[in-house]
């Protein structure tokens, strides 16, 4: 048990070191701005110079996705309020204050607050003054052994509900981006002949099917996204949701174990019908920022996000190796048969991100 804990601590230290390196980069940009008297806007894709317009909040800010998103936002010129739900994570981040030069350069760029997703007043206080909120929905199993349980799904739904309500009750918040999952789109009765072979942002998973198959992670993401949309539409909050495939990246299975293991429940069926997809955490973070920056113009609704569909045994073997699991847990064997295969589409997100890139380079 001590060996496992030591390994977990090693990965936590690596994540925080990655974050520290980002602060170093941001500090260097700040010093360059001061030395050259240049407008920091030239170093970012964000159009606003107003410091209040540049302040955003990221929930679960020390999770695998949370840290990547904070890093991406900082490098795009945003000030970030990192929201965590326990004192231990607060202390981890505040240890960085010991690096005085870095912290002084970034002190107006990063702040840390604690609030639990079940506490409405705490969330409202955390969001106060922020232009936007990124709810990454990164829950972990407190016991560290049982994966993503049915009760965790219920907590996630309540957390999503509270975040949306808190956003609506906080005058400064204009936009909210919620991280859902591709699993909220793909779990349907695939034997139905009337299903379109194209799976895109308009597709929703079947709640009863998720319950029957005990796909608690898919069910949690599905219901959390649905309640968010229901409340946002009722109160008029501007919302977008991003539905990523399995989130990968450096040492992802160790740094994001709960979500990784939970996502791969049903992997053989997903692989068999062509719907097992992955996305690198850095691309996913960029997607969040691109969608957020386009919410006042073109961005709306849901966005599927992936950069690879696992379609061959070689690709499945590579993923299994990264996971440290037998390849047949992903692609099954020759006796598996699935009558229908589907095609995933993230064209909506690709079009948005390509427009963002063109605008960065001054192209039409």
TrEMBL record:
InterPro entries: 3Beta_OHSteriod_DH/Estase (IPR002225), NAD(P)-bd_dom_sf (IPR036291), NAD(P)_dehydrat-like (IPR050425). GO terms for molecular function: oxidoreductase activity, acting on the CH-OH group of donors, NAD or NADP as acceptor. Residues 58-242 form the 3-beta hydroxysteroid dehydrogenase/isomerase domain. GO terms for biological process: steroid biosynthetic process. Keywords: NADP, Oxidoreductase. Pfam families: 3Beta_HSD. Belongs to the 3-beta-HSD family. PANTHER family: CINNAMOYL COA REDUCTASE-LIKE PROTEIN, NAD DEPENDENT EPIMERASE/DEHYDRATASE. This is 3-beta hydroxysteroid dehydrogenase/isomerase.
């Amino acid at each position: 048990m001590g060996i496992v804990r030591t390994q977990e601590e090693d990965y936590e230290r690596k994540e925080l070191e990655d974050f520290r390196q980002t602060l170093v980069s941001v500090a260097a940009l700040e010093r360059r701005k001061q030395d050259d008297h240049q407008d920091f806007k030239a170093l970012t894709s964000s159009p606003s110079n107003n410091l209040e317009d540049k302040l955003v909040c990221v929930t679960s800010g020390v999770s695998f996705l949370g840290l990547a998103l904070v890093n991406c936002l900082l490098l795009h010129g945003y000030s970030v309020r990192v929201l965590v739900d326990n004192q231990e994570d607060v202390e981890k981040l505040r240890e960085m204050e010991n690096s005085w030069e870095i912290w002084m350069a970034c002190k107006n760029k990063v702040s840390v607050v604690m609030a639990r997703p079940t506490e409405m007043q705490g969330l409202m206080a955390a969001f106060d003054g922020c232009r936007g909120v990124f709810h990454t929905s990164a829950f972990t199993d407190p016991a560290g052994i049982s994966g993503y349980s049915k009760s965790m799904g219920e907590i996630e739904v309540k957390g999503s509900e509270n975040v949306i309500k808190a956003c609506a009750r906080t005058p400064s918040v204009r936009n909210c981006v919620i991280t859902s999952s591709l699993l909220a789109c793909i779990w349907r009765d695939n034997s139905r002949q009337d299903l379109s072979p194209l799976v895109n942002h308009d597709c929703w998973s079947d709640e009863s099917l998720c319950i029957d198959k005990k796909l608690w992670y898919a069910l949690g993401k599905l219901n959390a996204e649905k309640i968010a949309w229901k409340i946002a539409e009722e109160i008029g909050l501007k919302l977008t949701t991003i539905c990523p495939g399995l989130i990968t990246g450096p040492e992802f299975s160790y740094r994001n174990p709960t979500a990784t293991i939970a996502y791969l429940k049903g992997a053989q069926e997903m692989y068999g019908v062509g719907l097992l997809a992955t996305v690198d955490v850095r691309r996913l973070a960029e997607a969040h920022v691109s969608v957020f920056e386009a919410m006042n113009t073109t961005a709306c609704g849901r966005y599927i996000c992936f950069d690879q569909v696992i379609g061959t045994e070689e690709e499945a073997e590579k993923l299994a190796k990264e996971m440290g699991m037998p390849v047949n847990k992903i692609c099954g064997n020759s006796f598996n048969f699935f009558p229908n295969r589907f095609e995933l589409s993230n064209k909506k997100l690709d079009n948005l991100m390509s427009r963002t890139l063109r605008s960065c380079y001054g192209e039409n």
